[in-house]
Structure formats: C-alpha cells, structure tokens
Amino acid sequence: MSASRQPTTITPYPDGPLLVRGEVELRTPDGELIRLHRRTVALCRCGISAIKPFCDGTHKAAGFRTDEEGHDDGH
Amino acid sequence: MTTSVLVADTSLAFAARGPLSDAVLSRLTGRDGADATALAADAVAAASDIVRDDDIQLALFLLYSSAYGSLPELDAEREWDPALLTTRRVLEDAFERAVRENVPMPELPEPTVDAVGRALFDLAAADTGPSLSRYFAKKATREQAEEMLVQRSVYTLREADPHSWAIPRLAGRPKAALVEIQADEYGGGRPDRVHAVLFANAMRAAGLDATYGAYIDDVPALTLASFNMMSMFGLNRRLLGAIVGHLAAFEMTSSIPCKLYADGLRRLDFDHDVVEYFDEHIEADAVHEQIAARDLAGGLAEDRPELLADIMFGAAACLTVDGWSGAHMLDAWAAGESSLRGGATP
After folding, report:
1. Which class for B32: exposed (0-12), middle (13-18), buried (19 or more C-beta within 10 A)?
2. Where are the domains of chain B?
3. CA spacing 20 to 30 A to B74: which of B138, B247, B288, B292?
C-alpha cells in the first residue's frame, strides 16, 4: 500500500497530547507490543492519563500547559 | 390533544404527539393527511418554547429521519416531497431562531488555527453546569443508568451521522480532519467497531431494545431537540460552521464524562459490553477533540473566516443544549422521578 511508504508523523498539539499518524510500534519497557485501537493515536504528554501511553483528556482538568518549540500556529 | 383523534396509523413503534407530527407522519408514510405546512405555522405561532415542544420536535425528528433513512417505515419517495421540505423550513427557521436567542454567544477569536483551537477548549472548560456524569459515577441507580442509555440512544444509535453531512461541503485540511475523525467513528474499516454498533451492543447487554425508534415515545422533546439541532446544522449548507463547531464541542465534552459513565456502570456491575462503549470513547475522543478543535474548526476558520461566528455559535449551542438535557435528567432524579416521558421505566 502506497500510504505505508509515507513517513509516520508525530504532531504536538498545544496544551495537549502528541498525535501519531502512520505505521508505528509502541512497546512497554519490557518490549511487549502495545495494541493500537485506531489509525491516529494520541500519546499522553502531561503524565497523568489513566490509560498511558494514550491520552484520556485529563490534561484539560489539570490545566496542563505546553511551551511549544517553534511555531504552533498551523503554518 | 390525545392520540385517539390522530389519523396516522403505521407500524412505527411510537405515536404522534399532536396534529403537526401526525400530519407529517401521514405524508411521510405515503398518505395524504392535513396540510402540514399550515399546521407547522400554527404550531410555531402557538408554542411558548419551541425547543421543548413535543409536537414540533417530533415533526422535525420525523423529517430528518426521512433523510437519514433511520426509520424504514418512512416512504423514500417522500424524502424530497416539496410540501414537506416547505414544512421543514418553517420549523427550522423557528427552531434556529429559538436556539440563537437562547445560546450565549462567545467572544470571537482571531480566525487562526491556534486562536480558534484555544478559544474552543476555553469555551468547553468554562462550561461548569451541574454534571450529569459526576452524579452518574457516584450515585446513579441501575434504573437511572438504563434511562441514560435510552436518552442517549436517539443520537448514539446514529452516532457520527449528523456531522457526516458536512464532508462534501468542506475542502482541504478541514475536510481531511473531519474524515479522519469520522473514519474512526465508523470503525476504521471494522464493522464490529462502528461506534453506533458498540452502542447497540451496550443497549442489548443492558437488556434494552436497540431497534431505532423503540424508545421514541419515552424521550422528552428536549432529547429530540438535541438531535434535531445536529441534524439541522448538518443538513443545511448555510449552517456549515455551526455543525463543525458543534462537533468540536461535542468531542471536547466526551472523554472525561465517558470515564465517569464507565466508572458508574462498573460500580453498578453492568456487563462488559455496556462499559466497553464508554471505555472506547475515553481514548477515541481524546484524539478526536484535538483534531476537531484545531485541524477541523481552526482550519475551517482560517480558510473561510466568514464562518467563524457560526463555528463558535455551533460549539456554544452544543454546550447549552446538552446542559439543558443534563439538567433535566438531574432535576428529575433529584425529585425521585424518571427523566422519561410519563415516568416510563425502560
């Protein structure tokens, strides 16, 4: 499939998670594969998600703020 | 008016709620009854609160059901019936006016991805009404949990469909963003993971009927109005900004509440399939809210700044109307009553 030859992207969303698009393997510290449930996944960046490594939206209630490197205005 | 004088007699599992919904139902099932447009104008003129008017909201629900194809009893030949389209427009104009009058309009951000994304998250965070999901996690009874599933079923058995009407009306980044969200809603190619299917499984595992329309008689006008508002925003190209803003706010108020619903359902010892639907939405909607706020809503505002006001209006309308529904359920339960019509138990 030609789509799989596209590079996988990781996009930081301001004050939120990292969105991963494309083929990727996530593993536990023991090297076990973590099952992905969807094509685009959000990885926790605030450290308080209850479903790590995935985001569960809790960063919003915690007032998590990021200081993005580079532009985050979509350009 | 009692149902005994109404003429519509179909195999549908629910009844008309007055002369207008009766006339619409007759015409949608291929028969000719009273002049629905005249009845619509009368109903709009007489209604003290269109959002909570049973006859008007059921009539709109039926007209939209014809477009979705969600009720097979409705005649496909009547979908584009000019008389019914006129009826629908009379009701939509009044309904939209009522929603715009009652929804506090947020301050408009700059039409950039970053400013719109942040403004939408701020708007959702500022929505601090009484929380149905917090009550649900700690206090809801099994009967109230079943009521919650019944109330949600009007939309959730059709989950994602109202927002899909927007796909062909978008282009570029916002179009790709909406399709990215909707593909996940529709199971990413796996029929058993379609979110509406997960919800039907949840209903059946809770001992409820997952047939679409099975509980329409039991839900109040407000529950129909919440779904009708999405359908109106989605089906009218002039309201493209509103349906996009609605989706952003809807996704933003889902992952944390779904965690609380899942907690409550586990506490009440519901079957795995019931909890599964809500568990799925914790992770899914934490992805969707980011895409919806920035790539979809922010991207659309940047491409088409003239839609900015309606993007913010759609988001505020979602929060306001869902707030009314949540308050209705909490009020009924606080009074020791059912939130369903006629105090029904599912």
Report:
1. exposed
2. 3-102, 113-343
3. B247
What is d(CA B105, CA B114) in angstroms, rounded to the nearest whole number?
A: 20
The minimal CB distance from A14 to the residues B112, B114, B184 is found for: B114
Encoding tokens for residue A8? 């996988």
Q: Which two tokens stand for residue B334?
A: 């606080």
pLDDT tens digits, residue range B115-135?
999 999 999 999 876 689 999
Task: Please state the domain extents for chain A.
Answer: 2-62
Q: Does domain A2-62 correspond to CATH entry 2.60.40? A: no
- Contacts (Cβ under 8 Å, ≥6 apart) of B28: B62, B63, B66, B74, B75, B78, B84
pTM (2 d.p.): 0.94
Among the partner-chain residues B114, B188, B259, the one whose CB lies closest to the CB of A56 is B259
CATH code linked to domain B113-343: 1.20.910.10
Whether the ipTM is more than 0.85: the answer is yes
